[in-house]
């Protein structure tokens, strides 16, 4: 398997080609089982439906592959929404070492079309690992992260680059290998470049692969493996 590369294919198929116990960190943002379609009135931030967002039938196979290819002490960060956090946690506990739920508190939010409810201002990120134990780098930080919400120009669940850099630096070392199984707009790729990590990105959707390629042209070239 070639490193520092974007693979356009189904993530489960690509993961089968990754050697056992070779991944140092998993940072990924899978479909949330919400059948999400952006309803924003701003045409710039409207997006098509997310593929495989209508069920979680794939999650057990996905987690089994994560367990196989990750080093025993490797950390994993798996984003999810409030809607099915219980299901995600239950499945992760069955396959991996569940450690904590990190709350991303967004410093801004969209307010329209919410007259009947409170405006959501957070997302969850499940922190887990393999069978081993590894300390986090740096100080002992709280499990609430505060980062400005992106404007989702490139993807409906786009994450801030700075937040991804923070997570990568907390759970890996320079030149470690980071895996993102749902690369979407390539934010993990940019964060790996900025933090000096090797990477494997997987994205099935042609449109998002093209977005990643455009970002690649305006960012520092990929890393060399050491």
Q: Would you kindly provide a written description of the structure presented here, covering whatever features stand out?
A:
With about 230 residues, this protein is an alpha/beta fold. It contains 6 helices and 8 strands; from the N terminus they run βαβαβαβββαβαβα. It has helices spanning about 10-15, 60-70, 85-95, 160-170, 185-195, 205-215, and strands at about 5, 25-30, 70-80, 95-105, 120-130, 145, 175-180, 200. Strands 1-8-7-2-3-5-4-6 form an 8-stranded mixed beta sheet. Helix 2 crosses helix 3 (about 85-95) and helix 4 (about 160-170) packs across helix 5. The longest helix is centred in the last third of the chain and has 12 residues, at about 205-215. Mean pLDDT is about 85; it is low at about 35-45.
Key terms:
single chain, 226 residues, alpha/beta, eight-stranded mixed sheet, 6 helices, globular
Would you spell out the secondary-structure blueprint of this structure?
Layout: E1 5-7, H1 11-15, E2 23-28, H2 59-69, E3 70-80, H3 85-95, E4 97-106, E5 122-129, E6 144-147, H4 161-171, E7 177-180, H5 187-195, E8 198-202, H6 206-217
Parallel strand pairs: 1-8, 2-3, 2-7, 4-6, 7-8
Antiparallel strand pairs: 3-5, 4-5
Helix pairs in contact: 2-3, 4-5
Summarize the structure.
This protein is α/β, with parallel strands linked by helices and 226 residues long. The protein has helices at 11-15, 59-69, 85-95, 161-171, 187-195, 206-217; strands at 5-7, 23-28, 70-80, 97-106, 122-129, 144-147, 177-180, 198-202. An eight-stranded mixed sheet has the order 1-8-7-2-3-5-4-6.
